[in-house]
Design a protein that fits this description.
The structure holds 2 protein chains of 2 kinds. By secondary structure, chain A is an alpha+beta fold. Chain A is built from 3 helices and 5 strands. Chain A has a 5-stranded mixed β-sheet with strand order 2-1-5-3-4. In chain A, helix 1 runs antiparallel to helix 3. By secondary structure, chain B is an alpha+beta fold. Chain B has one domain: Aldehyde Oxidoreductase, domain 3 (Alpha-Beta Complex). Chain B is globular. The chains are: A alpha+beta, B alpha+beta. Chains A and B meet through loops of A and strand 5, helix 2, helix 3 and strand 9 of B.
Amino acid sequence: MKIIVKYFAGIREAIGCAQEQRQTAATNLGQLRDELIALGGAYADALARGKAVRLALGQVMSDEAAALTEGAEVAFFPPVTGG
Amino acid sequence: MKEMPRVSVQTADFDVAAEIAAQRAQDPRVGAVCSFIGTVRDHTAGEPGKVSSMELEHYPGMTEASIEAMIDEAFKRFDIYAARVIHRVGVLQPLEQIVLVVVTSAHRSESFAACEFLMDYLKTQAPFWKKEQTPDGAKWVDARVSDDAALAKWGIQARNACAGLPRRTPASGICPAR
């Protein structure tokens, strides 16, 4: 399915991309993360298991079990540091 | 009467007195007004004079929506009349204001609690990221395990600083690697 993926902060810098449209075979956020890690290079480094990465789906904090739907907006970012 | 926005994410500075007056809104039920201001400090990790500026990034759309939801939760938990959060983004210098939380209620305990609740909540769940400019270059600020602990006292698991990593976070405050 086609989805929109956004990246923020250090992850955005490492990957060199703020936003992209992706064609994915993943059905949930965890599978999507694995799919991106499998791309290797900067994706693998930035999203590696063992790195603290937060996930959002439809602009709401989510976890790896969250199910993807056609046209969904997903975001990967580091732990937040506002306030 | 025009509806006042409860959440603003903006580059512009804010006027605390004007915002407090707006929240008090000539409401005779209000007996207590609590406010919190977060400001830019001039040092990073205990080294005075090292931060020259800070840049705040955020997730447009999600930022405002998430803070609105936090305010909804504050209204559920505490008997308050009004709440407002302003959070700045962009480049800020030491001494500048970053964030404002204003809450009104009849009595002080509710305002104090709701104000602290909103700060603890947004520290670990609102999608902002701080980048400090130092003489040695730019560095993204690390999330703190202590902020997760602060949200836990309200019965909410933050899962921010150690997101996705094994649950037990040691007293050292350093997230365990997988």
